[in-house]
Design goal:
The protein is an alpha+beta fold and 206 residues long. 18% of the residues lie in helices and 31% in strands. The protein folds into two domains: 120 residues, Outer membrane lipoprotein wza domain like (Outer membrane lipoprotein wza fold like); 67 residues, wza like fold (2-Layer Sandwich), CATH 3.30.1950. It has a seven-stranded mixed beta sheet. A hairpin with a 7-residue loop joins strand 2 and strand 3. The longest helix is centred in the middle third of the chain and has 14 residues.
Amino acid sequence: MANNSALPPPTGADLYGETRPYLIGPFDKLSVSVFGLEDLSQNEVQTDASGRISIPVAGTIEAAGKTPSEIAAVIEDRLRARHVRHPQVTVNLKETVSQVVTVDGEVKEPGLYPVIGKMTLMRAIARARGLTELAKTDNVLVFRTVNGQRMAGLYNLKAIRQGNYADPEVFANDVVIVSDSQARRIFKDVLQASPILSAPLVAVFQ
């Protein structure tokens, strides 16, 4: 079933957690700095498959689903409980593998790209070093799961550049495919009736 409504954003249940602010997930890499206590600081620590990290003195921290600042607050509380006076902890995200968008098809560097902050379709394609010479700008798919329902949105990059409609936001777990025959199969009836895509199209898979 296809319609002209915008592809809705995923809910918290569709993602590991909220999209804004960034929440830590499994296998993300963090840096932990404890002011004045270099022995407790770690330049790089990776969450395990369950989203936990281990910090000297503070012990094991459930990092998954928390922001870096929330993790820092937990570490400070743990250190206070172990008689560290006035701990000042800073946690930063170094690398993410838990919240990424997949960009595939006719782009120069297909792959997985982290979603940190707000990312749009055009920015995601730019992260993949732009389009190849074979790319068809009117044939770009975004696959997304919303409330457990699989959906696809069809976009025209030229129309976005011309300001016909807004550059849509993409989210973690989205799959962007440029110039794929799936678009013609999914939206066959609509595209036959109107081959010029002047507005986004959305299909819901039954």
